[in-house]
Amino acid sequence: MKLALTRWTATLAAAALSTGAGAAVPVYGFEIVRAYPHDVHAFTEGLLFLNGFLYESTGLEKHSSIRKVRLENGEVLQKIRIPPQYFGEGLVVWQQRLISLTWKSHVGFVFDLATLQLQKRFHYPGEGWALTQDGRRIIMSDGTADLRFLDPQSLQETGRIRVSLEGKPIDNVNELEWVKGEIYANVWRTNWLLRINPDSGQVVGLINLSGLLPASEQVPGQTDVLNGIAYDAARDRLFVTGKNWPKLFEIRLKPTGESAQANR
Ligand SMILES: [Ca+2]
Q1: Cα(139) to centroid(ligand 1), Å
Q2: How far apart are the CA of 21 and the centre of ligand 1, in A?
């Protein structure tokens, strides 16, 4: 029986996922624990949870920002704008700093966590998509199947892994989150999250978030794709949202009993 994988990327469509005996990668569904308000004008690119608050970076030229947000009501408590020529991308916290990327400008920013004041800029090759960290390293996606590891101080690359499902690379790995020893990532323009082994890059689980935002809450021309994963380690809460979505969801994974593998 083939899994119905709607809006899957071309790469993954080519991989022709199917269920079957010997399939190794479990597929999860979800249940909504709670829904919170989310700013429909926030084109979410990065999301993280820290000390009771959400931190969110948003994209689009002239509209990019870094925000501190109250989870419970979506209130923006602090906000700074990214210079208008830049398309803001991923966001990560490291000690008392927030670090963010831009899409195609090869420029990243370092902000003071408390004041959101810009402290410095840094540079990197290729595109910037998303950031997270594992307590030792910054982890960065760039729109390909590769995830880069960066030194948190120098922000220089120290290594990389290639995200793959049964040996086939998966492109468009986007927003990232470190969750209990794995890298969670959503795949751009899909409703899927990947659970990735941080040593090998192998996908060890797939989470199907189709139907998370009901059609009745989607506004044509405004509501964009799933993007944004945050994790509250203290209370084991997983949050997801999307670009210009009206809601942010706490979800719990539900095993489906299905598994996926790439057809040979
Ligand atoms: Ca994140």
Answers
A1: 10
A2: 34
Ligand 1 centroid, distance to 176 Cα (angstroms): 5
Q: Where are the domains of the chain?
A: 2-262
Q: Measured between alpha carbons, how far is 229 from 55 in angstroms, rounded to an integer?
A: 11
> What's the CA-to-centroid distance between 17 and ligand 1, angstroms?
26
Cα-to-centroid distance, 229 and ligand 1 (Å): 4
How far is 204 from 18, CA to CA, in rounded Å?
15
* pLDDT tens profile 141-196: 999 999 999 999 999 999 999 999 989 999 999 999 999 999 999 999 999 999 99
pTM: 0.91
CATH 3.40.50.2300 given to domain 2-262: no
For ligand 1, the distance from its centroid to the CA atom of residue 95, given in whole angstroms, is 16
